[in-house]
Amino acid sequence: MKKPALAVLLTSTLLISAVAGTFVVRSAKANPTPVPLIELTISNATNQTYNTNTITVGFRAREFILLSGVDFFYILDNEKKAPITNFTVVSDEMVPYNPPFSLKTMEGSFLLSNLSEGWHKVTVYCQTYDQNYDDEGFIDFLVDTVPVISFLSFENRTFASTDIPLVFTVNQRTSQIKYCLDGLGNLTISENATLNGLANGEHNVTIYATDESGNTGVSETVYFNVNVPETFPTTLLIVSAIAVVAVVGLGLLVYLKKRQR
User: Fold this and answer.
1) Could you give the number of structural domains in the chain?
2) Which of 19, 52, 102, 174 has the fewest beta carbons under 10 Å from its own?
3) CA–CA separation, 130 vs 240, rounded Å?
4) Is the pTM of this model over 0.70?
5) SS3 for 206?
6) Does residue 245 sit within a domain?
7) DSSP 3-state assignment of 252?
8) Which residue range forms the structural domain that includes residue 47?
9) Domain at 203, CATH number
10) Which one, of 193, 195, 191, lies nearest residue 181 by Cα?
11) Rounded to 5 degrees, what are φ and ψ at 181?
12) Cβ contacts of 202 within 8 Å, gap of 6 or more
């Protein structure tokens, strides 16, 4: 004797929910058949802060009674939809129900690179080939990286000057910039500067940049040399020249007097 339709519906719903989450069932038959569904979740936590502009987004999809293959897509910040190709099947099992049904679980990931500073939103879509069943999930996240400093004025070279331009760039807005010359303490500057009155010999400089969120980036320490040839003062050269002329003139005068005798 067949069970009442309501009892069959409740029994099948509880069984399916325990195995594959909450799914819709067709209750028109004595032995109801679960309706194909897709359930997608993103593994990355929402409202997370990343200190890098390259992140990997992971996701999991459960396909309940797979009638056709599936496609995965993502959209970053409401831009163009992009396909996801890196996903694998981690489990594929038949559930012994009457009639039996399939439960397939897949996991995948994709890379987001060159992200700008600030908040972003990425949405992941899962859809069957025939586009009859789909699901989606999204996360919001913040990119807040440390400043990156690049030197432009020199790269481990020798200067024939005691005044060296300190020229550099920072890849984001800053609240404070400092530099340290020869380990003698940090000096605050607001932009490119000049290192004045350097002595001959080896020197080194490091730059520190703090962004508006309080993250501090440190440049590489650059080593350089100052080699300014020593020169005599102009007045000393003039005096020396006059002295030479006077000595030569005096010698010539003595020589001529001796000839006259």
Assistant:
1) 2
2) 52
3) 99
4) no
5) strand
6) no
7) helix
8) 36-143
9) 2.60.40.10
10) 195
11) -105, 120
12) 223, 224, 225
